[in-house]
């Protein structure tokens, strides 16, 4: 803050001293003027009040916090912030919600179907439904319902959001989400909206949006071979799917109009961790990973988990002091991420991992080991400037690769990574914040307006 260079007088504050000029006869005309009218009797005080208000309003205008703020966009990779600024800009408070959202995306409008509770809110009885790694389906729904882009008039909508939660059926055996019911639940929702509304049939679902925030996205299965065999359900092939799965090569599970979104990480958990240890604090762990690492390449399912990558990590670096590798779960593991320089993000069953978001949010350089992965919002998030990409076949050389990065361009990577706009772009909030993950989804939809029935009708007229 700027320090004021002046002090107000101790008596009656700021005032204007006035003196009336003497008359041409050499005598003061004040007594005569005071006798003539009420105005003259109070002339000094009227002028004093007017001038005081003038100077006070001028001061407020010149010191308004928004002055000279042109709101010019800045590249995510160009600005470095202190830890305090990082937290202030990254936190999800109502003060960060843009006051001019309606000006973005050229009047984009989304209609959200009001489906029966069995399709969404009934699942929230289990608190994990809104906090686990697949919970973007919940967060996006909530954010849209309070967004300025929401419309209650479906005839003015560009897109239609279908809120079906398919990742909240937790298995009683291992506690992981079970999505075997996903296809039938979505099919039921589509049948309902197509019988009650005309909008699905008129566009064959091409302007309808769904979320598939689990392993292989639109194929709705956790095992890749089964997902590929099943393929994308026919009733979704014309629609837009927001999915965490994405690869650069051709793949049956992304042969649909799609947007690659980040996995869900709770903003509250990140904020709590950063309150205790900011991103700029000392990092005493060189390379970190905590998670499932199979001792033997084939797990109980008979499949090769992580294409053997995690097994190789454990075998090669378990005894290496530079690596902090843990196979067991720990509820406070984010406190380990914020202490680490590099965070390993190897593929699991699918290429993506919540570690991508957690690492970025907590200022740890993500080391991505997943060949051909499509990263979320890669048109705005400078992944090449904030992460290290290691080929799966080069896991055996990982130590040398990271040592080289640490000796050469680590500080540049961290400078880009610690820009608070980077994690903001990967985090979902309950309300839309300019630049956050839901805002990026809306931006992606705005670029797909050619699929909007309303827009296409207007352009053809």
TrEMBL record:
**Gene Ontology annotations for the cellular component aspect, listed alphabetically:** Golgi membrane
GO biological process terms, semicolon-separated: glucuronoxylan biosynthetic process
Domain of life the protein comes from: Eukaryota
Indicate the secretion signal residues: none
Gene Ontology MF terms in the entry: glycosyltransferase activity
Keyword terms of this UniProt record: Glycosyltransferase, Golgi apparatus, Signal-anchor, Transferase, Transmembrane
Q: Name one Pfam family in it.
A: Exostosin_GT47
- Entry's localization field: Golgi apparatus membrane
Under the heading InterPro entries, the entry gives:
Exostosin, Exostosin_GT47
**What range(s) does the Exostosin GT47 domain occupy?**
106-404
How is it placed in the membrane, per its record? Single-pass type II membrane protein
What the record says about family reads:
Belongs to the glycosyltransferase 47 family.
**What protein does this entry describe?**
Probable glucuronoxylan glucuronosyltransferase IRX7
Organism per entry: Prunus avium
Q: Which gene encodes it?
A: LOC110755417
């Amino acid at each position: 803050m700027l320090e004021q260079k002046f002090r107000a007088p101790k008596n009656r504050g700021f005032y204007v001293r006035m003196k009336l000029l003497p008359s041409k006869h050499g005598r003061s005309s004040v007594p005569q003027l005071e006798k003539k009218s009420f105005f003259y009797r109070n002339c000094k005080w009227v002028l004093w009040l007017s001038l005081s208000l003038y100077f006070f309003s001028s001061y407020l205008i010149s010191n308004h916090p928004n002055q000279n703020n042109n709101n010019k966009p800045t590249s995510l990779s160009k600005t470095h912030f202190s830890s305090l600024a990082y937290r202030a800009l990254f936190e999800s408070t109502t003060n960060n919600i843009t006051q001019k959202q309606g000006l973005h995306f050229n009047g984009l409008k989304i209609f959200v179907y009001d489906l029966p509770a069995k399709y969404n809110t009934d699942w929230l009885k289990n608190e994990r439904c809104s906090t686990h790694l697949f919970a973007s389906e919940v967060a996006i729904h909530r954010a849209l319902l309070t967004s300025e882009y929401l419309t209650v008039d479906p005839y003015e909508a560009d897109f239609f959001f279908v809120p079906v939660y398919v990742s909240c059926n937790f298995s009683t055996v291992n506690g992981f989400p079970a999505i075997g019911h996903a296809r039938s639940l979505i099919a039921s929702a589509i049948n309902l909206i197509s019988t009650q509304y005309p909008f699905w049939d008129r566009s064959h679902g091409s302007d309808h949006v769904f979320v598939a925030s689990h392993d292989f996205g639109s194929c709705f299965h956790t095992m890749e071979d089964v997902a590929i065999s099943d393929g994308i359900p026919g009733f979704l092939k014309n629609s837009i799917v927001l999915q965490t799965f994405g690869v650069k090569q051709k793949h049956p599970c992304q042969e649909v109009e799609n947007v690659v979104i980040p996995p869900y990480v709770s903003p509250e958990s990140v904020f709590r961790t950063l309150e205790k240890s900011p991103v700029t604090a000392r990092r005493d762990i060189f390379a970190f990973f905590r998670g499932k690492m199979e001792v033997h390449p084939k797990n109980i399912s008979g499949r090769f988990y992580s294409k053997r990558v995690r097994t190789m990590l454990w075998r090669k670096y378990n005894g290496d002091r530079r690596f902090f590798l843990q196979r067991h779960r720990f509820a406070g593991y984010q406190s380990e991420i914020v202490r680490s320089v590099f965070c390993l993000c190897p593929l699991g069953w699918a290429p993506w991992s919540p570690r991508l978001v957690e690492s970025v949010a907590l200022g740890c350089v993500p080391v991505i080991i997943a060949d051909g992965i499509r990263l979320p919002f890669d048109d705005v998030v400078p992944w090449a400037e904030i992460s290290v990409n290691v080929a799966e076949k080069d896991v055996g050389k990982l130590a040398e690769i990271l040592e080289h990065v640490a000796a050469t361009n680590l500080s540049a990577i961290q400078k880009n990574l610690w820009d608070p706009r980077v994690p903001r772009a990967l985090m979902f909030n309950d309300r839309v914040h300019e630049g956050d993950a839901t805002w990026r989804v809306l931006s992606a939809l705005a670029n797909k307006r050619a699929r909007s029935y309303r827009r296409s009708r207007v352009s053809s007229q």
